Amino acid sequence: MGRGRVELKRIENKINRQVTFAKRRNGLLKKAYELSVLCDAEVALIIFSNRGKLYEFCSSSSMLKTLERYQKCNYGAPDTSVSTREALVLSTYPFALFVYVSRNVSIP
């Protein structure tokens, strides 16, 4: 028998929340590495803790080059356009690209 599903809600206990974050962060970083090795995929992963600490993984030599490559992709959808101000922020702070995408793209 497998494990039961975990109810997805905020963990109220600060210590338990931090422990869970650390374990899941490490698992996610491991999965990103495995995906890059097994499938020869270029993978970039950016994680910010609730304290603002940055954790990142990039399968290529440069996170910036991977983010620039991502930024150059044009999917042709009308809602993918960014304003001049947003483009300036994204070009100045490459890590902001992930934040922008995560806030503006819905995942089914």
From TrEMBL:
It comes from the Eukaryota. This is Agamous-like MADS-box protein mads4. The keyword Mitochondrion does not apply. Keywords: DNA-binding, Nucleus, Transcription, Transcription regulation. One of its GO terms (molecular function) is DNA binding. One of its GO terms (biological process) is carpel development. It comes from Salvia divinorum (Maria pastora). Residues 1-61 form the MADS-box domain. CDD domains: MADS_MEF2_like. InterPro entries: MADS-box/MEF2_TF, MEF2-like_N, TF_MADSbox, TF_MADSbox_sf.
